[in-house]
Design a protein that fits this description.
single chain; 417 residues; alpha/beta; 2-enoyl-CoA Hydratase, Chain A, domain 1; Rossmann fold; 2 domains; six-stranded mixed beta sheet; 16 helices; globular
């Protein structure tokens, strides 16, 4: 199973049901991206959009941050070929890292994300959700939004990203590059508020009536986007699909492709579910690992157990996440606390999502980056051997104990038929 930048070997019983990706053939990446730029969904080709605008004084290309496995080194050169071919010099182009409320990326992480040539040649900026001078207030969809000013004022706006199952917004990609990617703190706060997250439709693989998806889409319309380039990946992080063009139509096509590639149905709930957080970079901290736990929740039985392997090389994650989790006295009490008018602490939403898991099942964590004390204070149980933990968990449920394995964690959707 994926673990950090490598794998961990796990022995499972013969009757375990394993839910793995369907193994779509990876594409010739560069050619696939170039073909998508020239034949986009619901839009003129990117080169045509640039020509139609006439003189373009400023270009803003939004990329995901260091916690996402987006193949920017393949996507960006193809986009920059188009801008260069249209006569736009590098000094007019800004690459904006959609960090939401995550920490800024380091110089080394920027190079890892973009490649040395692009990181050194183009202006690369981390979004700052807390800087009021760098934000612009917009109206649309019956509400107001705070968005990165540099992006809002650019002549040409391009979004890039990865379409994968998302435990709040249904699928990542598309409009999520803007909300929460380059939104202001107040907007991010509402996007992650109990008013949206407690909806049963704010769940993996669901777009219809999903309040997170609706809110982010309304903001994306208000902020505007000329073109998107999104991809889907296989378990080896190779491109299996490229979806470019109109922000809504291209994203919808990508989400449907992702659904076909990664959605499975189970006949029944399972007593024990073994999963991961998809390996590096998503399993670099416990904050992100909540995604892998949520991915197992749909098929774990009430009172069952989830065993998750996540390296967590960066430890717990943010200070707020750590303090909220360590200080949580009861699950229901925490939800009451964050639902009180005026209460807000950044990253409370990740604890809220973890509570949804803990309400249904107990959790065991295999991690080299977390101490046993940190795991216990996070209301979970540390394990040193996953195979032994599986056998121990099965012992609680008798001879007919059922086991499911989701090797790729949040990159796979499993629902009860």
């Amino acid at each position: 199973m994926p673990y950090g930048k490598g794998y961990v070997k796990v022995e499972v019983p013969d009757n375990a049901v394993v839910f793995e990706g369907k193994g779509l053939k990876p594409l010739d990446s560069l050619e696939a991206v170039r073909r998508a730029l020239a034949n986009p969904a619901g839009s003129m080709p990117l080169a045509g959009i640039i020509r139609a605008k006439g003189r373009v004084d400023s270009v803003c290309i939004v990329v995901s941050d260091h916690t996402r496995a987006v193949p920017n080194r393949i996507i960006l050169p193809c986009i920059l070929e188009e801008t260069a071919g249209a006569g736009i010099p590098p000094e007019r182009i800004t690459i904006l890292i959609a960090s939401g409320m995550h920490r800024p990326t380091t110089r080394q992480e920027k190079t890892e994300l973009l490649g040395e040539e692009i990181a050194g040649r183009y202006r690369v900026v981390d979004h700052d959700a807390r800087n009021p001078e760098g934000l612009l207030r917009l109206k649309g969809g019956g509400g107001e939004f705070l968005v990165n000013r540099m992006y809002a004022e650019a002549n040409l706006k391009i979004l890039t990203g990865l379409i994968e199952p998302h435990f709040m917004a249904g699928f990542s990609g598309g409009r999520k590059s803007i909300c929460p990617g380059i939104a202001g703190m107040d907007t991010i706060q509402y996007f992650h508020s109990p008013a949206l997250l407690e909806s049963p439709c704010a769940s993996t693989g669901t777009l219809d009536n999903n309040p997170c998806h609706i809110f982010a889409s309304e903001m994306a319309k208000a902020a505007g986007a000329d073109f998107i380039v999104n991809v889907t990946l296989d378990k080896e992080k190779r491109i299996t699909g490229v979806f470019a063009g109109d922000p809504e139509k291209a994203h919808a096509a990508g989400a449907e492709h992702c659904r076909k590639e990664s959605l499975f149905y189970a006949e029944r709930p399972f007593d024990v579910v073994v999963t991961t957080n998809g390996g590096y970079p998503l399993d670099r901290d416990l904050y992100q690992t909540v995604k892998g736990l949520v991915s197992a929740t749909d098929i774990v039985a009430e009172g069952g157990e989830i065993i998750c392997a996540a390296e967590c090389i960066d430890g717990m994650g943010s200070k707020n996440f750590r303090e909220l989790l360590f200080g949580m006295e009861s699950l229901d009490g925490f939800i009451e606390k964050i639902s009180a008018p005026g209460f807000f602490v950044p990253d409370q939403w990740e604890v809220e999502e973890l509570i949804k898991v803990l309400r249904k099942a107990s959790v065991k964590i295999y991690s080299g980056g977390l101490t046993e004390e940190e795991i216990r204070k996070s209301h979970m149980t540390p394990v040193k051997d996953i195979s032994a933990a599986i056998m121990e968990s099965m012992g609680k449920y008798g001879e007919k104990a059922s086991v499911a394995v989701i090797p790729d964690g949040p990159y796979t959707m499993v629902k009860i038929k």
